[in-house]
Design goal:
The chain is mainly α and about 280 residues long. The chain is built from nine helices and five strands. A hairpin with a 2-residue loop joins strand 3 and strand 4. The chain starts with a strand and ends with a helix.
Length: about 280
Amino acid sequence: ASSMNVICGRVACAPANSSARLGSGRSPVSSKRATANLLPKLHSRKNGRGSMFVVRASDGTESPTMDYAGALKFLGLSESASSEDMVRAKNQMIARYENQEDKLQKVEAAYDVVLMRSLMKRSQGEVSDNRVKYADVLSPGATVKQNLPPWARDLTTKLPPRPAFETPDNETLTQCGIALGVLTALTLAQGCSQPPGVDNPPGLQLSLALLGSVWLLRKKNLTLSRSISLALLGLSAGAFVGGAVQGWLRVDIVPLGALSSPSALVSEFGLVGIFAASAFLY
């Protein structure tokens, strides 16, 4: 990679006299090194929708242009993402597009835009959310991790990131709502059609819901394993709530209208949990 001028300090962005060599675009970085991986010069252009950044290296070459909203969407980040989230998303995308050079350039461009905007907002005093962390400001958890033995630090870096909440767009909400409505109607119809004492779980509906959930989560640029994990998390949470409701109503003893199937009742909540995870988690 080309040599880049250092433009970020601890408190505010300012030019620096030294330059260093960046690692390969395919090499994962740690959050502690996020600002140490020297940032390229950014030229901002105003358009009708906001700022557009062009990432320019010291040799004059430009990487793909990308606006801030596009960079967030491409990396699957929210505006309150911490530096750890930024680096984690970058590394996941690098692993996903390992042999696709054009995609890797887009990942680097998106990461640089998001990190630079975060640092600019910080230097201008626009960030008031205490949850937002930066690469040169260690969180309490990162401080504890820094004092761990090397083998323990390596183990913690392999743990999957915790689920994070985001506000879904209208398209995602519409897709989730349609799928949820169809599958819950089918589940309810199956539960009501079963005579008392017969309880066949709606396995087909749950399987379709999980597949649809994974597909929606993959559209957020999440890895397959994380998409599956979040879908199963939503199913587990919904089933837990549904089990509590079934324990209170006992539809197998006192049917709720024509519904006497406990598995159908629990599955309804499981479906809600699955699509809630698809819409609101990443």
